[in-house]
Amino acid sequence: TMLKYKIAVFVQKANDIEAKLNYNKIDGSD
Prior knowledge:
This is Cysteine synthase isozyme. The chain is mainly α. It is 87% helix and 0% strand.
């Protein structure tokens, strides 16, 4: 129960970070 919640939060954070990195790659040309 708690473990599943922690995993879900971890995955959500990882996806958010990956999305931001991908956005920065597309948005910035440096």
